[in-house]
Amino acid sequence: MEKIYGKGIYEGVVIGKPFLKYEKKIEVEPYSLKEGEIESEILRYKEGIKFAQGKLSNLINELRNKIDKKDLQILIVHFEMLNDPIILKEIEDMIKKEKINAEEAVKKVLGKYIELFSNKKNSVYQQRVSDLKDIRDRLLFALIRRKELYNNIEGKILIAKEILPSELLELVNNRVEIKGIIMEFSGTTSHVAILAKSLEIPTFMGGKNLFLEKWSDEIILDTYHSKARVINNPISEVVEEYKKLQKFIEKENDEIEKNINMPSITLDGIDINLDFNAGQNIDLGALKRVNPHGVGLLRTEFIYMERDNLPTEQEQIKIYNEISDEIGKNKPMIIRSLDIGADKILAYCPVESEENPSLGERGIRFTLRRKRILRTQLRAILQSAYGKQIKIMHPMVSCREEVLKIKQMLEEVKADLREEGLKFKEDIETGIMVEVPSIIFMAREIADEIDFFSIGTNDLTQYILATDRFSQKENELYDYYHPAVLRAINTLAEVGLEKNKKVSVCGEMAGELVGIVILLSFGIKDLSMAKTFIPRARNIVRKIEFNSLDNLKKQILRCKDSVEVRKLVKDYIKNL
Ligand code: PEP
Ligand code: MG
Predict the structure, then answer these.
(1) DSSP letters of 327-345?
(2) What does the pLDDT average to over 419-446?
(3) Among residues of the chain, what percentage have pLDDT more than 70?
(4) Within 6 Å (CB) of ligand 1, which residues are found?
(5) Fold of 35-144
(6) Whose CA is nearest to atom 3 of ligand 1?
(7) Stated pTM of the model
(8) Options 3.40.50.2300, 3.20.20.60, 3.10.50.40, 3.30.450.40; CATH of 270-574
(9) CATH architecture of 2-23+149-236
(10) Residue 456 C-alpha to ligand 2 middle, in angstroms?
């Protein structure tokens, strides 16, 4: 029996068969098709192309500001070749004519071009040979991988070096049920982590050397305990223990379901606002079920990233109106202005390459330098907020001067709208995200200029601990239960109380039981999280006596490391 420790992303206990997703290519033998199989093979081939194109285009976007333009050009050429209608049609025709599987047709057609260019001495042709080999492998990989994954993964625990958000979405789209995910990649606030949570798949990250293990037929994935673990070759007694734990969790889930329509109120009658973080996919059915108080964070990036030009004012108004209609017109919603930079890139609006993009032009720094973008967004938010409980907030603010600039722009935009005779929300509330530590130290002065603070613990943690939230190497240092992060949050909560300004939290921490208890003990009553966490959050809120948390808060603030914090709060939760 071996145990591998890492980070749990979505809590659960799974006992099941592992499925290893190898990165290396798998050879496929040629086979002939029967007449009736040709159509579905063409469809599979077309889906494979689409998949390969999508993967490459994502890669290009991810690398756009990280590598030299010259190097990026290699991938852009590959992308163009992957879209070449002549080659693609030739492969399709060969599948039909020769009645062979798509992989074999890809090999034959591209093999022909590879041979043709290989015989030429010119270095330009030699380069084409390697380009062609690359796209041949990309296509083969897309075809083989898809078939392998879909056929074999159903009902198993996926083990991978890394799984991309697009791959995960694709599996879900194809209704393939994955019981759990174990990966070497580690990024607790990465997009794949956020996605795994919203899909409610128990997920484990940061496992070392997963592919050196000899996996047993049955393994245990435990992300329920704070020290998440994978157990390979479990002895029968341990399997039995985990089966008991699964029963216990089921009972706990029943209790959560029972409380689903109850108010989010503590034992001593304090209302806690459980909001949700919204992005592109607002699943209305799921939303009604979990019944959130409102939207605590609308990440507007998706509106800009899903297209190849800037959204107009009218297009944005339409989207904000649609979202507020979906969640319910009377529900509060905080719309965050565009948060571009670092990992989020607009292909059609590039930023200059920087040594350290996380410390560079991102969030409000990006939009304050591109005033037209921010003005258009403010105009749209102000108009769609008319008669509704909509607020604005800005990401990555690091100083009071930025706050003053934002305020000035808001007033100018309002004056324009007034002059144009357009309806808009005059008294809109404006807040800032607290993601940069300087804000904590300047909180009193800044509080006088804004209506509310919303703590983005995902970024705040990376900037307080000087550890990249997306880095794999330094990931062990990234921990939002580090006492330094918690003390910073508490300081801000105290300023909020003193200045009578609302402080909410919208980072991943706000959706975890340990996080919720800590934040309540600091007096924070507004928590925004992935919608799937709301029922669990409501359940724990209803067990807590808000005004008796002071002693716990004192103990938390005395902790010397995150291990101590977790233990202390977990023990507290056990006794609720
Ligand atoms: C955060 O930084 O905590 C946050 C909520 O913003 P994002 O995850 O979108 O950077
Ligand atoms: Mg952030």
Answers:
(1) H-TTS-EEEEPP--BTTB-
(2) 98
(3) 89
(4) 189, 297, 299, 339, 435, 456-459, 506-507
(5) Enzyme I; Chain A, domain 2 (1.10.274)
(6) 456
(7) 0.71
(8) 3.20.20.60
(9) 3-Layer(bba) Sandwich (3.50)
(10) 5
